[in-house]
Amino acid sequence: MESFTIFDRFAQFPEDIINVIIYFTKNPVFDLLQVCKYFSKVAFLKVTSCDGNHWQLTDERLKNLANLKRVNINRMHNPDLIGKSFKYLANITHLNLNYNAYVCEKYILKLKKLVSLELTRNSYVTNETLELLTNLTHLNICNVQIITSIQKLVNLTSLNIGHCHQIDENQLKYLTNLSSLMLKSCAINYDISDMSSITHLDLTLNDSVTSDTVGKMTNLTSLVLWSNKKIMDADLSKLTNLKKLDLCTNACITNTSLSLLTNLTKLGLADNEIMTDMSLMKLTNLTHLDLSDNDMITDASVSNLYNLKTLYLASSYGITNVSIQKLTNIKTLSLNYTNINANVSLTLKSLNLQGNSSFLDESIIKLTNLTYLKLGVVSAITPDAIMHLESLEILNLSSSTKKYLNDISFKIPRHVRIIR
Known about the structure:
Shape: flat
Number of strands: 20
Number of helices: 12
Strand content: 15-25%
Distance between the termini: 22 Å
Helix content: 10-25%
């Protein structure tokens, strides 16, 4: 699968491109007609604007995009772009209209294959239209206050009603197929303890759903408690089926309950000032760990997590070369804004060194399996060292200096995609 961010020259890419991402600035030089002409096999199209740019789109330009299944039209304030042209896009299954100022409902109803709809801060789709989209399995109406009825959408398996205050729990009872529920910043005290189908629950910034309710949801396998002040140790410790847990900036959960959740494979402790090494000692099944902005966790616990495949250490100074050298199964590693310069696992696939001036050429040239590398303005890695990375596919230099970009552009193989 190939994926490109397109700017102004479409013909240089192969015709079998299936992912196209177009980002508008104030002076767009794009012409979607070229996208349609050259990329007849496109299955995913993302169009986004930083300033609500009015982009002219006519019906004829979409005739060749009959294979489109996923369309992301983000922050575009152009009724033509998201209106009658949809009649040529009958195969769309996923539609993202987040932050759009215009949408014509009758054209959305023509998308008979639609199963996923994103409407964050979009106030132009009404109850009447939404209730007719009974094939939907995923719905995001975060920060949409005009939607008050979803009980007819019985096929939903994933629902995001973050910041919504008008959907009551009686409507949720009809959604018996629901497995994922996001209640970020909801002010309603939903009693969802008997909704046994739910396995993923997001209670980010939610101070309404009680600890007692969550404690009864023993089928949960994924739980997000980012900045949550309601859920306490006593009830979290009952959720022994949890495999994913996010405790970012959480100040209520302690070592006591976390150390009991030995089935966890993914854990987020970013910016967490409560947890210590004791909480991780028994969590040997962890494969993903986020310790960004966390100085409480040290080598003492991390060096024993031999199953780790993903580790994020942005601005984390509790971890040193000592533990990094022992983690031989690591595939994704973020060392941005740290002083770590250890010889990391040779099987590493993805490495973030933004803000890291300690990692040197002698370490990077050994990573022959690396496919993704991100560097920043203070990087000590030279263009000559990067040339040794035979497997490299993406080089992210979005935070690098103009001089570094100029120096490296002439030395990197053409097959490497450079993000500027």
